[in-house]
Structures are given as C-alpha cells and as structure tokens.
Amino acid sequence: MSTIGDDELTAKERYEDPEAPKIPKKLRPWMWILTVVSVCCLGAVVSIVQLLSDQSNGEDGTVTLAGCGTNSTVDPNAEFPAIEPYSSEQIKNAAIIISVGQDLEIPARGWIIAVATAMQESRLTNLGHLGDQNDHDSLGLFQQRPSSGWGTPEQVTDPVYASTKFYNKLVTIDNWETLPLTVAAQRVQISAFPDAYAKHEPKATEIVNTLTGGGGRVAAVDTQLGTCTQPGELSASGWMIPAEGPINSGFRTPERPTHNGVDIGAPRGATIVAAAAGTVITSECNASLYGAPYSCNQDGSPEVAGCGWYVNIVHAGDYLTRYCHMGSAPLVKEGDVVQAGQILGYVGSSGRSSGPHLHFETHLNADRSPAGAVDPIDFMNQMGAPLE
To answer: PANTHER family annotated for this entry (predicted)?
Structure first.
C-alpha cells in the first residue's frame, strides 16, 4: 500500500505514489479538476502555476483574483476579444447568450450552462443546415430542430430566439441550478452524447467571467451580479466549499513548506461534501506507522504517515480535489459520479493527524502528485467558493 506522507518521512514513506494506477479511460469524460491534501499530507515544493487562462498575471504564474461581476448588462453589439480557441465573432455569440439570460433574469449558473451547451453543439457558431454532414434538421447555436418543435428554420438561426428557447426549457427542469452542468444541458438538448457537455464547463466559466467581470463567482441561484458566493452556497461556476471552518494551516507556508493543501478546522463528525461535480478515482485508507500498515478506524498521530480515509475526485477541466482524514470509511467508492454538495464522508483524525480537521487539496492536470498541487485558497476564490 502506497502512503501519502511528507518530506520529513523516510524516502520509503514519502508520498511519491509511483504505484498509483492510471485513471481509467472510462472516467476521462469527467476528469477536469485539481487536487487537495490535509495537514499531514505534505510534498515537494513547487511554484504556483496558472490556474485558468484568465487568472494569471503573466510569466511568473502568480494569480490575480477578480471580482464577482457588475450589474451592467452585456452589450452584444460591443467589440469582443478572441478567447482561445474562439474568435471574437464566436465570443459575440456567447455575449448574446449571456445578454438574453440577463434580460430573462435567468440565474448566472444558467448562462454558463447555455454557453457550454452552444460550445458543444456549434462551437459558438450560428450554423445553417450542414447538408450531407447533418442527418437531421439541426440549426443555429444550439442545433435546435424545427421538426422537433423548436421553431422555424428562420427562428432557430436567430441567436436571440434560440437562446430564449434554450432558457425557457432549462427553467422547467427541477433543481436545474444544482444539477451537474452536463445533466442540465442534456435534459434540455436530449443529445446522443449526454456526457459531452461537461468538458466545456471551465472554458464557459472563463468566458462568462471575462464578459461579466466575474459572474461565475456569484451564487448559482443569483440573478444579480456583484455579491460573491457565501459559505455553503454553490457558485455559478459549479463549486462550493467542502466543509465549514477556519483555515488552521495554509498551503506551503514557511513553517510547513511541503504542506500541499490547507487544513479546515471543522469539528469531528462534520460533513465533508464534494466541492464540484466529478468522478471519484480514489476512496480508501492510506496510513502506515514506521512502514507497517495502520488502521484508519482509529485516530492517527503525527507519527503516522498518510491521509487516513481519503477521497480523490477528478472534475471538468482536469482539476482534482483531495479530502483527507475522514473519521470513517468514505460514503463513495471509486468510479462513482458525484455532484457538488454530495456528502463524501465525515471529519475525523485518521492518518497523520493531530486532531479532527479536513485536509483539502486542489490539483491541476489531474496530477495527484505534489507537482500538480496549487493553493486551494486561490483556486477556490477563482471558482467563486472562497474558503475564508
């Protein structure tokens, strides 16, 4: 059994995870997030890397924290920059989608769902009939079919009309704001590829944040911008804090330079929830004492190596989150698809821990090693779910 440890342990005990299995291909559609670790799970020091393309100041990889939007309606007649890989004309179509959502007073979560859907269906291009390349009569930004009752060909190729029809269907879906994006989009579109929308969520969030000054950082149910997500709320970008409590130990501090996550001081028995929708890739006990296996069904100590009972989840964007030191076996298993806010387990003190808390890590590129870890405080701020 490999052990998640820290640089103060022997080379044998240190977390290098050379035996970690590759993530199964069947899970790849969900692999889009980062990773998290606890107070006892430490690793090699690496510089903070750019989280998202709209969050870096430049070559030094430092992170710029943005606001939570303004109440100014997006003007679809304005000039828009290209946002890779989309041209300014494609971003203009995204602006129309967002503007219609604002006019209809659709919560900000809906704008991200709608933009991501159009990215999948048309690459944000107002498509006419594709002839032999299209075996249906699908048209427009959302590839809506006149034969299925979406409207006339002229109507569904009008971006304002098409966006309005999308939102009108979306709001009929129960609890659409809290559903995983790909589920909400699929219930509107009834696509032959129901999981295809998930991979577009990070870029759709980036586009909405860019055009609205941070609209993805308000609560998912908010129709007005400007007020950031509060603790326990789901953000418009689909993220929420995994547990409530103060940050008792930070990311790679001078005192703990190999601490690859943050320690959230939640009490024993407090619920730990998934920070975003994704797929569980690890759910197990990880603990040893002087190289010998150690039970996770008891409190650990600073002498014990490992995360104890812990979970890794991979999210859209190849982000990975880690949740360590649970007090009992996790409630989810490898391969489970979870949604934001789903209970993963309960706070405890298993593994390398001196008291109850949640050690939380965020990683990029689905890299579960210390090289993939980034500061969870900065990362979660960017996702609209501030930890403090």
So the answer is: MUREIN HYDROLASE ACTIVATOR ENVC, PEPTIDASE-RELATED
16-48 tens-digit pLDDT: 332 233 333 333 333 332 222 233 333 322 222
- 57-73: per-residue pLDDT in tens? 333 333 344 689 987 78
Q: Are 33 and 361 in contact (CB under 8 A)?
A: no
CB 249 within 8 A of CB 96: no
**Collapsed DSSP state (helix, strand, coil) of residue 84:** coil
90-141 pLDDT, tens digit per residue, is 999 999 999 999 999 999 999 999 999 999 999 999 987 554 555 568 899 9
Sign of CA dihedral 42, 44, 46, 49: negative
- Residue 315, beta-bridge partner list: 278, 319
Between CA 329 and CA 345 the distance in angstroms is: 7
CA 112/CA 303 separation, integer angstroms: 46
Give me the amino acid identity at 153: P
Among 6, 25, 8, which Cα is nearest to 16's?
6
The alpha carbon of 43 is separated from its chain's Cα centroid by a whole number of angstroms, namely 23
Q: Are 341 and 347 in contact (CB under 8 A)?
A: no
Name 76's Cβ contacts closer than 8 Å, sequence gap at least 6.
92, 95, 96, 99
Alpha-carbon gap, residue 133 to 378, rounded angstroms? 44
Res 309: pLDDT: 98
Q: Which helix (H) or strand (E) holds 206?
A: helix 201-212
Transcribe 263-313 into DSSP letters.
EE-PPTT-EEE-SSSEEEEEEEEEEEETTEE--SSS---TTSEEEEEEEEE
- In sequence order, the 6+-apart residues with CB closer than 8 A to the CB of 288 are 1, 3, 13, 294, 304, 305, 306
H helix intervals, 88-199: 88-103, 108-122, 153-156, 159-170, 181-189
